[in-house]
Amino acid sequence: QVQLVESGGGLVQPGGSLRLSCAASGTLSEINAMAWYRQIPGRKRELIAAIGRDGTTTYEDSMKARFTISRDNAKNTIYLQMNNLRPEDTGVYYCNAEKPPSWSASEGLVRGTDYWGKGALVTVSS
Description:
Blueprint: E1 2-7, E2 10-12, E3 18-26, E4 33-39, E5 46-52, E6 57-59, E7 67-72, E8 77-82, E9 91-99, E10 102-104, E11 108-110, E12 113-116, E13 120-124
Parallel strand pairs: 2-13
Antiparallel strand pairs: 1-3, 3-8, 4-5, 4-9, 5-6, 7-8, 9-12, 9-13, 10-11
């Protein structure tokens, strides 16, 4: 069981910056990667970036120019730095944590799980 709580959303002017945080708690040993997604009104939820325990990152090509994912393992927290924000960035930003399938000597392959935060609203407007 893992709980995710996003913070740092709010109103920002076009061209401004915002930093989102996601604090994780619970059975953190289950998690091997975390990620940020967003859902813009009228569009499907889309991946922004993901980060592993060792700090390795992956980005969607359309996101990497302005968004940066990072983590602080001591605080069990990941961050999303967003720069040069545009009105079309307005939407709900979600934190994700992945529990991968795992092998058990007694049970074999055990099903993995995706955990989600409730989302943080980001509004880019003057």
